[in-house]
Structures are given as C-alpha cells and as structure tokens.
C-alpha cells in the first residue's frame, strides 16, 4: 500500500498516528516513522538484504521488510552461540540471547530468568567493534 498522508493518519484526539488499513487493530504510533514502518507489513516488498554472501536472506534471496530486522538478523552470523545450560545434550544452541531466553521460558519453566548459569551464558558477547549493539 502507499504511505498515507499525515492529514489522513494523524488524530490529535488519540495522540498519535493511527493505521487506517482495514481491520488493523494496532495501537496508535507515536510518530509517522513508526507508522510507516508498520505499514510495511501490508506489502510484499523486502528491500533490505543481508550483506553476507550465500545467506538465504542476502541479495536475490528473501530479504527483510524492515531494516531493524536485517540488523538483528546479522547477529546470527556474528554470534558466539548461546547454548542452553539446562539441556544435557548441548544441541540447543541459539544465535541470539533472546532466542535462548524464550527457549528457557518455554522448556525450563522451573528455572528463573536470573539463574546464575543462564546469566553466565547470556553474558557472552559477539567479537568485533560493534559487539552486537546498535549504533
């Protein structure tokens, strides 16, 4: 869909920018940039591609609708691998810390998110100048 003009989407009564796509239930967005990012879910364009050659999401591959999704995906290439400390087989290795945290929340409900073993694994950081942080 085309981006909507500001006069169509801004609504002072609700204090933000509301998506007017049919049947959309999203809460109003604080600014137009966030609304425009949201509107990308309604089209099939995937203009952002992983810079790693051979990746299925690189140029010519699937790509991403949003730039922040591409940046987050980059962690899978730079990750030290977050291995679940509670699984005995060491097969449960995740590229991002949030993936491991979700695994623990779902499969190890008896473990606390502040468990020292889990905190030790999550303290790992990718090597390099950015160390997985946004700039």
From TrEMBL:
Residues covered by region (Disordered): 107-135
GO BP annotations listed: regulation of transcription by RNA polymerase II
GO annotation, cellular component aspect: nucleus
Positions with biased composition (Basic and acidic residues): 107-118
Domain C2H2-type: 17-43, 48-77, 82-107
Signal peptide: none
Gene3D superfamilies referenced in this protein's UniProt entry, alphabetically: Classic Zinc Finger
PANTHER family on file: C2H2 FINGER DOMAIN TRANSCRIPTION FACTOR (EUROFUNG)-RELATED (PTHR46179:SF19), ZINC FINGER PROTEIN (PTHR46179)
Protein name: C2H2 type zinc finger domain-containing protein
